[in-house]
Write a structure and sequence with these properties.
Structural class: mainly beta
Oligomer: single chain
Order of helices and strands: HEEEE
Radius of gyration: 16 Å
Number of helices: 1
Strand order of the largest sheet: 1-2-3-4
Strand content: 25-35%
Number of strands: 4
Distance between the termini: 18 Å
Largest sheet: 4 strands, antiparallel
Helix content: under 10%
């Protein structure tokens, strides 16, 4: 659904987070690609990692039972 509105580049915004809240599926794209996760980086104790990030996240809310889309947007 997000790709039909915001284009194929939305597939690059992985990993996605998915949560079921009551009867609504909430799906969001990620702002940071997995290659920038700080867990895999070696840093000195006084080094602060602040990656430059442009863009926003995609967000969609879908009714679990009917498939009706309540909300769809992309932040900037």
């Amino acid at each position: 659904m997000l790709a039909s509105v915001y284009g194929e580049r939305i597939y690059d915004d992985k990993p996605y987070t998915v949560a079921l809240l009551d009867s609504v599926w909430v799906v969001e794209t990620s702002l940071l690609p997995p290659s920038l996760e700080t867990d895999s980086l070696e840093m000195d104790s006084d080094m602060v990692l602040q990656p430059l990030v442009c863009g926003g996240i995609g967000h969609v809310e879908i009714n679990k039972h009917t498939g009706k889309i309540y909300t769809i947007y992309h932040t900037k």
